[in-house]
Amino acid sequence: MRVAEPTVERLVLYYRLLMQLHNEERRVVSSQEIGEMLGLKASQVRKDLSYFGEIGKRGVGYHVERLYRHVSDILSPDRVWKIALVGVGRLGEALLGHKALRSEKFRLEALFDNDPAKIGQVICSVPCYDSEEMTEIIREKGIEVVILTIPAAAAQVSADRAVAAGTVKGILTFATTAISVPEEVLVYRVDISVELEKLLFFLKGRMA
Amino acid sequence: MRVAEPTVERLVLYYRLLMQLHNEERRVVSSQEIGEMLGLKASQVRKDLSYFGEIGKRGVGYHVERLYRHVSDILSPDRVWKIALVGVGRLGEALLGHKALRSEKFRLEALFDNDPAKIGQVICSVPCYDSEEMTEIIREKGIEVVILTIPAAAAQVSADRAVAAGTVKGILTFATTAISVPEEVLVYRVDISVELEKLLFFLKGRMA
DNA sequence: GTTCATCCGTGAACATTATAACAAATGATT
DNA sequence: AATCATTTGTTATAATGTTCACGGATGAAC
Fold first, then answer.
1. Residues spanned by the domain of B18
2. Both B168 and B108 in a single domain?
3. Is residue A147 part of a domain?
4. Are residues A178 and A116 part of one domain?
5. How many domains are there within chain B?
6. Which of B9, B176, B204 sits opposite A194 (nearest CB)?
7. Which residue among B97, B98, B186 sits closest to A202, beta carbon to beta carbon?
8. pLDDT average per 10 residues of sequence, chain B (208 residues)
9. Measured in Å, how far apart are chain A's first and last C-alpha atoms?
10. What nucleotide is nearest B40 when CA is compared to C1'?
11. Does residue B80 belong to the interface with chain A, where contact is any CB pair within 8 Å?
12. A50-95 confidence digits (pLDDT tens)
């Protein structure tokens, strides 16, 4: 069954919240409460959670542990992905330390950079390779997901090199530029400038 | 007139592309071409651009410089915002060096951290203050936008301190947790984990 | 046990966003 | 000057997403 992107996004939020509630040994929670904690309408929460079958109990609410496991199952991949990070600059290093990259859903197998001082090093227990050799190494290692933390100018070249390996199925890019890839490769973009611009734009509107 | 959020998001993309085209001394561009370069439908591009009046020329296309200035005007704030960054960890420092924070639309006036080694320092020509003093300093300086690059556990406390100053109108948070603020404060969230999770979820779906 | 307040699941109504379709304008060509 | 290939702006339509409203469970209180 097809699930909408906004729903998946909220599922991740539910997952986090449920983990927290579970740790607090909370037993039961209602859609109302979930909504208040996450800033969503209760009806939205119920609709999202009902996509995957009846999991709550009418008149009672959702059993925290059961719902937690359920959402966890939905989000869990059927295997551990192999990923690589391209660009070990400040942002790349920040990501290496960020909890987003500490997940059991994937293993970070390789870093790439073009700085000779970094090539050959092992950073955060991950080896760093020369960007020039990206295609071969990605292919050898069978890496399927690539995170790009490089300047806009280098993004397309890196994307091309990664895709050329033939094993890459998804790209998460932080570069502030559009990249073009074959349509079978899924691209997600995190664009800090865009979010800031949106914030300022709507602030301007509110002042007026 | 009200403009939809997805439209504003794309306006930023148009803006970037037009800057580039302008630098390349390109004179004219069509909605078709813009769409191809950004991965959008031509009709979408035309609709977005027409929200702000007739700016193209039928049978010809859009005059690059004129459109560039036009989009630039739409996105430009009516004054320079004063902003602060809370949390000078790896992610905060990455942002300090990132081009997203080099904009003429705002001035970064203060940093906040609770690390004694950083308090009192001037980092990237911006003074770093003790997080404890956040409310007073934000109020004194009249800071209106706050960027949170801190762990989830500290996010709500920092948001509360910032909002308590009474001058803050918008928050951009990188924390992986929901924060609750008065409804007159606009919050945007950049959530790296969520984007990665979404990518993996839809990859799983494609494999099946 | 009956009543009652609570709360889920769901289909329908509503709102938003994207796409398609086409008339009107433009400049090139003949 | 008339025709033609383009390309915009806009209206109509389709697709998507959110909220409402209510039937039907559930357990607590008395």
1. 5-75
2. yes
3. yes
4. yes
5. 2
6. B9
7. B186
8. 92 98 98 97 98 94 97 95 98 96 97 98 97 98 98 97 98 96 95 97 89
9. 45
10. C18
11. no
12. 998 989 999 999 999 999 999 999 999 999 999 999 999 999 999 9
Q: Which residues of A touch B193 (CB under 8 A)?
A: 12, 99-100, 103
- Residue A6: burial class (beta carbons within 10 Å; 0-12, 13-18, 19+): exposed
According to DSSP, the β-strands at A62-63 and A186-189 are unpaired
For nucleotide D20, the protein residue with its alpha carbon nearest to C1' is: A43
Tracing tokens 């309408």 back to the chain, one arrives at A41
CA–CA separation, B148 vs B10, rounded Å?
24
Helices and strands (DSSP H and E) totals, chain A? 8, 9
Indicate whether B204 belongs to any domain. Answer: no
* Residues of A 30-59 whose CB lies less than 7 Å from any atom of strand D: 40-41, 43-44, 46-47, 57-59
Residue B136 CA distance to nucleotide C9 C1' (Å) = 49
Final residue of a structural domain among A74, A89, A119 = A74
**B5 CB contact with strand D at below 7 Å:** no
Q: Which of B54, B75, B96 is the C-terminal boundary of a domain?
A: B75
Residues B68 and B85 in one domain: no
- Is B39 part of the contact surface with chain A (CB cutoff 8 Å)? yes
CA–C1' B4–C16 (A) = 9
What beta strand segments (E) does chain A contain? 28-29, 62-63, 81-86, 106-113, 122-123, 126-130, 145-148, 170-173, 186-189
Cβ–Cβ of A188/B178 closer than 8 Å?
A: no
